[in-house]
Amino acid sequence: MLKFDIIHRDGLARTGIIHTPHGDIKTPAFIGAATRATVKALTMKQMNELGSQAILANTYHLVLRPGTELIEKAGGLAQFCSWCKPTFTDSGGFQIFSLPDVKITEDGVKFKSYLDGCIFEMTPESSMQAQWAIGADIHMAFDHLAKSDSHEDMEIAMHRTHRWLDRCIEEHQRLAASHSNQDEQFLYAVVQGGIFTDLRAESAKYCTTQPVDGFGIGGVFTAKGMDEMLKTVNKILPEDKPRHLLGMGQEPIDLFMGVEHGCDTFDCVGPTRMARNGSLYTKDGRINIKNAKYAHDFTPLESDCDCECCKNYTKAYLHHLFRTDEITAKVLASIHNEYFVVHLVDMIRESLLADKFEEYKEEFLSKYYNC
RNA sequence: GCUGGAAUCGUCUAGUGGCAAUGACAAGAGACUGUAAAUCUCUCGCCUUCGGGCUUCGUAGGUUCGAGUCCUACUUCCAGCA
Question: I need a labelling partner for A235 at 20 to 30 A (CA). Which of A96, A179, A245, A301 fits?
Answer without folding.
Answer: A96
